[in-house]
Design brief:
It is built from 13 helices and 14 strands. The protein is an alpha+beta fold and 456 residues long. The strands form three sheets. A seven-stranded mixed β-sheet has the order 10-9-11-13-14-8-12, with helices on both faces. The N and C termini lie far apart (56 Å). One of its GO terms (biological process) is lipid biosynthetic process. It holds the Pfam family Condensation.
């Protein structure tokens, strides 16, 4: 008989984040993958799926509300929610089409398993497996580990894997004295930071409320590799370099010297958490001071270390932080505009994720592209940047409320981010103000397109 258990910090954060989505945007919580199964025995594929379900709690977990609070219910056994389809594969875009179709179907937050898939065979022989997971149960890190374990199991049914604590074990530990020091340290960090976070002038939306936004994506095969090269020279990370350029651009376009930038943390810094299969991601705010006269190298290093310090406090009980925020607002004599604390506390956020293990080429010549999303995400934060690296290509997705940053400003920010990466690799002592005022004629077309399209 399954027993209800509280959520871990990562699970609770994902729940609070996803419950604010408008009903017609719930599919945004889905994370898809597709695996090529050609040449593999069907029995090996089916066995690997059964072993993974038995090995990992999230694949057997359902969520429920009890007295208004979310709980997790881990089932001892469950059938893999995978549809079997035997047909001729139309073309090599077929797997991606099926993956996208699965990803477009939202999961109910309560009552059912939070993943599904389709196993396609031809005359009984496996061709591909498409899967869609809700972020309620897994993050990208976990999906990469599951993919590795699936590959090992189809190659060797006896393959074993190094495992971390389960989500229910984490939830239990986070409520014991073993976690007390981290809990108290996180609360101190939040108390120090809440004043600046609540003073952020960027507007916020209540849960499930929609507003027109703009969304542009810069694609470059070179940018990620050049950022990694420049970061090594500066003694920082590529995500920190790009984040520092985003913070500087946001400060410039909103005419402020300070921004509260929220970073997405994987929360897998401790060795025992490297192999956790579950959802661990949480946002943590970093208050960044931007001095236009500072050298680019100094600005990047300052934000790198500010982010590194913030990550120490990035695993926390979100509901407890919401209480602290309400208390801080009351002390300031302020009435919150609404009670969606995810939107209130994280008005501007940044995430950098490497989706595979293929590095980017710092000297790639492929021309960069700038594309506008026809229908941008209409809910949540008024500004966010998500950097993803896959197949050697870096994509910088920027979303903004056009009343804060119009399309021309977004294009300028993305162009200057690309230029900032180039300058960080060649002349990192350039000041921020000189970077903004620099002509862009020296910007390589492999980092940013020469002709900038604008949304219709």
């Amino acid at each position: 008989m399954p027993v209800d258990a509280p959520l871990s910090h990562g699970q609770l954060f994902s729940w609070r984040e996803i419950e604010r989505y408008p009903d017609d945007w719930m599919q945004d919580a889905n994370l898809p993958i597709v695996s090529d199964l050609r040449g593999l025995p069907l029995a090996r594929v089916e066995n690997a799926l059964r072993v993974l379900m038995a090995r990992h709690e999230p694949l057997r977990t359902t969520y429920h509300l009890v007295d208004g609070q979310p709980v997790q219910r881990v089932h001892e056994t469950a059938e893999p929610p995978i549809e079997r389809v035997d047909r001729v594969v139309r073309d090599w875009e077929d797997p991606e089409d099926v993956k996208n179709e699965l990803c477009a179907v939202p999961f109910a937050m309560e009552g059912g398993l939070c993943w599904r898939g389709q196993l396609v065979t031809t005359n009984g022989s496996p061709v591909f497996l498409a899967l869609s997971f809700s972020h309620l149960i897994l993050d990208v890190w976990s999906i990469n580990h599951l993919t590795d374990q699936f590959g090992a199991l189809v190659a060797d049914p006896e393959a074993v894997a190094e495992l971390g604590p389960s989500p229910t074990e984490l939830a239990h530990e986070q409520r014991t004295d073993l976690w007390r020091d981290r809990k108290e340290a996180s609360e101190r960090y939040w108390r120090r930071t809440l004043g600046d976070v609540l003073a952020d002038p960027l507007p916020t939306l209540p849960a499930k409320v929609k507003r027109d936004r703009l969304e542009a994506t810069l694609h470059s095969h070179r940018l990620g590799g050049l950022a990694a090269l420049a970061a090594r020279k500066l003694g920082v990370t590529a995500p920190a370099l790009v984040m520092a350029l985003v913070a500087a651009g946001l400060a410039r376009h909103t005419n402020t010297g300070k921004v509260a930038m929220s970073l997405m943390a994987s929360n897998r810094f401790a060795p025992e958490h490297h192999h956790v299969i579950g959802t661990m991601n949480q946002l943590i705010p970093v208050v960044a001071t931007v001095d236009p006269g500072a050298p680019l190298s100094e600005h990047v290093k300052r934000l790198h270390w500010a982010g590194a310090r913030a990550y120490r406090y990035s695993s926390y009980d979100f509901d407890r932080v919401a209480v602290l925020a309400a208390e801080a607002a009351a002390e300031r004599g302020e009435e919150p505009a609404h009670d969606c604390w995810v939107n209130q506390l994280f008005r501007c956020w940044f995430n950098y994720v490497q989706l595979d293990r293929q590095p980017s080429d710092p000297v790639a010549k492929t021309p960069a592209e700038l594309l506008w999303t026809p229908l941008a995400q209409q809910y949540g934060q008024p500004f966010r940047v998500r950097v993803s690296v896959i197949n050697g290509r870096t994509s910088i997705l920027m979303l903004a409320d056009p009343t804060i940053i119009p399309a021309e400003g977004m294009a300028d920010m993305l162009r200057t981010i690309a230029l900032g990466v180039q300058v960080a690799a060649t002349d990192p002592e350039t000041s921020l103000k000189d970077l903004w005022n620099a002509g862009h004629e020296t910007l390589a077309p492999s980092l940013f397109p020469a002709v900038i399209p604008m949304p219709e």
